[in-house]
Write a structure and sequence with these properties.
Blueprint: E1 12-13, E2 19-20, H1 28-57, E3 85-86, E4 91-102, E5 111-122, E6 128-137, E7 140-149, E8 154-158, E9 175-181, E10 193-198, E11 201-206, E12 216-224, E13 227-238, E14 247-251, E15 260-267
Parallel strand pairs: 8-13
Antiparallel strand pairs: 1-2, 3-4, 4-5, 5-8, 6-7, 6-9, 10-11, 11-14, 12-13, 12-15
């Protein structure tokens, strides 16, 4: 007798006596189920990718209101104590006092306390593009800069060197100089672009139906409860313009939907 072991199911015998390898086959119904599941997964992934991409580029595509009214983190610690001071060009210092909060004038956003502030109203019929104000008191002179103040509007300005407010000082001999006014009506190019403001970001969409050649520049200020905070005007530049229907996203460190107002926009060349 032979001591050789029989193979363990490695081969099967056909009726012809020849050996064939065992073949593994899936049922057609199972193959269809696997294919349907794979196709479903691919469609879900594509849908999520498209949705996420559109949300980044366009968001809700809502136009930005020209003014917002939700308060910022700016606070005033003392009620102003000085009587109004009339200046040339229709500017009036309506209040003088002490300010504690975010220092806006140099873009640093430092927290300051007791800084000299003035509240200025443009009582003229012209939009002020730029002005400088000097406010002597004693042997010192406080300096302020103002940019983009439309007719009838009010702004709070902080002393440029962070000079402290002195309650007993006589702030009455103010002088305004280097004044420039806008020669054209301020426009936000609403017929050409659509703006969507997020915290620290702006989405800009070309809705004009044609290419916009040249840079698009957006000018905005801090704004709350009817008052502009800071003489500074911030700027966002979209370089090279936009193709028709193109959307571009730009960072803007100081902008927010609850505390900013777009002052005007220049669109292309």
């Amino acid at each position: 007798m032979s001591n050789k072991k029989k193979p363990k199911n490695k081969y099967i015998h056909s009726g012809s006596g020849k050996e064939k390898k065992r073949k593994f086959q899936l049922k057609p119904s199972l193959v269809r189920k696997i294919l349907l599941i794979a196709i479903g997964i691919v469609l879900v992934v594509l849908a999520l990718e498209i949705s996420f991409g559109l949300s980044i580029r366009i968001g809700d595509a809502k136009p930005l209101p020209t003014e917002t009214t939700v308060p910022t983190e700016i606070t005033q610690t003392e009620e102003p104590t000085q009587a109004p001071v009339s200046l040339d060009y229709g500017l009036t210092i309506t209040d003088i006092g002490s300010y504690t909060g975010i220092y806006m004038e140099d873009g640093s956003d430092d927290i300051v306390s007791g800084v000299l502030m003035i509240q200025v109203t443009n009582t003229s019929e012209e939009d002020i593009e730029y002005a400088e104000i000097r406010l002597p008191h004693g042997e010192e002179t406080a300096h302020f800069k103002l940019s983009t103040l439309p007719a009838g509007k009010t702004a709070i300005l902080l002393e440029l060197n962070r000079m402290q407010y002195v309650p007993d000082a006589a702030y009455t001999a103010a002088v305004v100089e280097n004044v420039a006014v806008f020669r054209q009506e301020l426009s936000v190019c609403a017929d050409k672009i659509q703006l969507q403001v997020l915290d620290g970001t702006v989405n800009v969409k070309n809705i004009s139906g044609e290419d916009i050649d040249g840079d698009i520049v957006i000018y905005y200020k801090n704004y709350s409860a009817g008052v502009y905070y800071g003489g500074i005007t911030y700027m966002i530049r979209i370089q090279g313009g936009l193709k028709a229907d193109e959307v571009r996203q730009s960072p803007a460190a100081h902008i927010s939907p609850s505390g900013s107002s777009v002052m005007f926009v220049t669109c292309g060349a």
